[in-house]
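Narrative of accomplishments. A recurring question from our advisory board has been how the design workflow behaves on a single, concrete structure rather than in aggregate. To address it, we present the structure tokens for one chain from the evaluation set, followed by the sequence designed for it. No filtering or post-editing was applied between the two.
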């Protein structure tokens, strides 16, 4: 008569223990699944897919500091290429200089105005001269802000009768600014100046 209630009480106790254990296991699995889901979502947020020529390319987003030296050097390279690449065509010259002046402050504008006032660009057009720039190396100090840089390059001046090669060394500082279509890296060159620009050699054509 008394054994049955005891058995029922034992069975209820065991059932309650099993339920508690099962709930703990389910809760643990749920929390594990949620943690995995959030970690995967955070990884996927950093991935960008780009469609190029019918192919899907995967890019990974990162902190700007990781790419700062690369972006800074590319900004400096683009500025110098635009500023020093000339052809005997006023539209080409104006287009290149306009691109360059979006990437630098008034120090570049002053040099452009001086060259224009001295008839340099008019001489390029009238003399059928082309000018090309080959960047040799760019050094950027990212340990202090604004970032100091130096750029070494070779300048080729192509005339109808000769090819003049000149060495070019410039310096300046980079500061951060807003990114735009005209300034995709978000830098501005300040206090830009030419330290050296001398003839290396002249070859007849």
């Amino acid at each position: 008569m008394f054994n049955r209630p005891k058995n029922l009480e034992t069975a209820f106790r065991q059932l309650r223990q099993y339920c508690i254990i099962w709930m703990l296991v389910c809760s643990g699995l749920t929390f594990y699944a949620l943690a995995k889901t959030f970690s995967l979502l955070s990884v996927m947020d950093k991935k960008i897919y780009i469609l190029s020529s019918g192919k899907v390319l995967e890019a990974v987003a990162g902190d700007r500091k990781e790419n700062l030296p690369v972006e800074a050097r590319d900004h400096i390279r683009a500025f110098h290429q635009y500023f020093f690449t000339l052809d005997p065509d006023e539209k080409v010259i104006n287009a290149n200089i306009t691109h360059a002046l979006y990437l630098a402050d008034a120090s570049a504008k002053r040099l452009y105005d001086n060259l224009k006032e001295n008839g340099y660009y008019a001489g390029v057009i009238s003399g059928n001269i082309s000018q090309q720039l080959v960047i040799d190396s760019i050094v950027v100090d990212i340990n202090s802000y604004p970032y100091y840089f130096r750029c070494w390059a070779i300048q080729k001046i192509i005339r109808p009768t000769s090819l003049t090669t000149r060495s070019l060394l410039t310096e300046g500082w980079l500061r951060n600014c807003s990114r735009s279509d005209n300034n995709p890296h978000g830098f501005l060159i300040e206090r830009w100046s030419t330290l050296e620009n001398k003839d290396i050699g002249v070859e007849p054509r």
